[in-house]
């Protein structure tokens, strides 16, 4: 069976949670391979509507194992709260495992994240303030604490004390309240005790699944335009949400990943700062945002909205070699008679279909084609061939401009509102 990576092909918030939830119903193992609780994956199924932040979107299949891989950063207390909320809704979370090589997201990471955003002022990055960036900074700087370290409470408390000597000095320097080492250690150890034997070495689980030819899904967070290396740096996340990052962050040999699904909305959205060439403003933005309910699942912030950007989606395809695209929220465009569609940029008078570096992208002007809309509701469609001709033509233009075929089409928020 193929190992499938599900990757965001825009700025994040493309609908990866919905696609993962759909495919997870026939999967054996689902792995979140990067990021932390800055993710906000909305899932609508027969159990209700859920906004998942750390827990993999496959949690609703009780027969599948869900893993937070070694590439993630994990706030254990937050994870326990999220699991408790799922259990209250009648969802079993017994099938969750946390890699003991994942890094802990500690309370000081949250404090430093919010301090950094505050001190940047008007040049803020627009982070969620969840501490993910500082957690990855500590990981790269070899100050991180891995999950397995909670097993030795005495040594863990010593690590917390030593790290806080430096972190508290920074917080106090900028007038923030220092953190108490004992309280911090107590809270993390209590959460670790709640998780108990669900903290494991996940590599044998992955190896066993591969040996059995099991069905494996790799769930990414955010999108290619927020990738640390290939995104709009510095307005990026602190990890690699590309398919290549899935291999490292999940512990999957690269050649085992044979299916890569790029998820795009039928238009564009972004949360956070940085250049966003097709962004709409004023009345047009408000109408699209309200029609599509575009508010962040993690922060509740109104998302920036714009028309489909084929340059960005093609950039993602060049980096991931998508075997197919999943186009979500096509139904949002039902009301438009004419739909602008960005195929290239104009940068300082030169036309380009390549993704410029960030400073050049800030000067880019989107160049649009105008495609005919279908001006009729499609939410009840049961097959792609029954979609209006102009809707099918819109999907064909996405395929042509991005260079990958459309394999799935979302026409509503529910799991079942997906045309294959």
Overall number of structural domains? 3
Mean pLDDT: 94
Structural class: alpha/beta
Backbone shape: globular
Biggest pleated sheet = 10 strands, mixed
- Strand line-up across the major sheet: 9-7-5-2-10-1-11-15-19-20
Q: What percent of residues adopt helix (DSSP H or I)?
A: 25-40%
Proportion of β residues?
15-25%
| Number of DSSP-assigned strands | 20
State the CATH architecture of the largest domain. 3-Layer(aba) Sandwich
Number of helices: 12
Low-confidence stretches: none
Within the CATH hierarchy, at the fold level, what is the topology of the largest domain? Adenylosuccinate Synthetase, Chain A, domain 1
CATH class of the largest domain equals Alpha Beta
- Cα radius of gyration in angstroms: 21 Å
CATH superfamily of the largest domain: Adenylosuccinate Synthetase, subunit A, domain 1
Distance between the ends? 19 Å
Distinctive features:
420 residues; alpha/beta; Adenylosuccinate Synthetase, Chain A, domain 1; Adenylosuccinate Synthetase, subunit A, domain 2; Adenylosuccinate Synthetase, Chain A, domain 3; four-stranded mixed beta sheet
């Amino acid at each position: 069976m193929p190992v499938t990576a599900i990757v965001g092909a825009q700025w994040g918030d493309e609908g990866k949670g919905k696609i993962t939830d759909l495919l997870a119903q026939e999967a054996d193992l689902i792995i979140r391979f990067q990021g932390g609780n800055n993710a906000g994956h909305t899932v609508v199924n027969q159990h209700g509507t859920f906004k998942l932040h750390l827990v993999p979107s496959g949690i609703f299949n009780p027969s599948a194992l869900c893993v937070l891989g070694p590439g993630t950063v994990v706030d254990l207390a937050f994870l326990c709260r999220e699991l408790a909320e799922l259990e209250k809704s009648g969802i079993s979370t017994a099938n969750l495992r946390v890699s003991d090589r994942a890094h802990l997201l500690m309370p000081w990471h949250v404090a430093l994240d919010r301090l950094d955003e505050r001190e940047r002022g008007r040049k803020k990055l627009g982070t969620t303030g969840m501490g993910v960036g500082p957690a990855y900074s500590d990981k790269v700087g070899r100050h991180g604490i891995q999950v397995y370290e909670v097993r030795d409470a005495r040594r863990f408390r010593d690590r917390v004390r030593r790290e806080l000597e430096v972190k508290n000095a920074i917080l106090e320097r900028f007038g923030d309240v220092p953190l108490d080492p004992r309280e911090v250690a107590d809270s993390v150890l209590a959460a670790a005790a709640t998780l108990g034997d669900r903290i494991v070495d996940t590599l044998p689980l992955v190896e066993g699944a591969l040996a059995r030819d099991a069905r494996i899904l790799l769930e990414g967070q955010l999108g290619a335009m927020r990738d640390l290396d290939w995104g709009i740096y510095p307005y990026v996340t602190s990890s690699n949400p590309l398919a290549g990052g899935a291999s490292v962050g999940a512990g999957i040999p690269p050649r085992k990943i044979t299916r890569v699904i790029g998820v795009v909305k039928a238009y564009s959205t972004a949360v956070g700062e940085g250049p966003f060439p097709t962004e709409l403003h004023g009345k047009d933005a408000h109408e699209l945002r309200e029609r599509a309910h575009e508010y962040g699942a993690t922060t509740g912030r109104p998302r920036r909205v714009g028309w489909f950007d084929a340059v960005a989606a093609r950039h993602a395809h060049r980096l991931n070699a998508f075997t197919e695209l999943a186009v979500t929220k096509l139904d949002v465009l039902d009301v438009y008679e004419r739909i602008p569609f960005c195929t290239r940029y104009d940068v300082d008078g030169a036309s380009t279909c390549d993704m410029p570096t960030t400073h050049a992208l800030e000067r880019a002007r989107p160049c649009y084609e105008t495609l005919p809309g279908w001006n009729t509701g499609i939410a009840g469609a049961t097959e792609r061939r029954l979609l209006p001709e102009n809707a099918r033509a819109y999907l064909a233009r996405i395929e042509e401009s991005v260079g990958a075929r459309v394999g799935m089409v979302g026409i509503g928020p529910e799991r079942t509102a997906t045309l294959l």
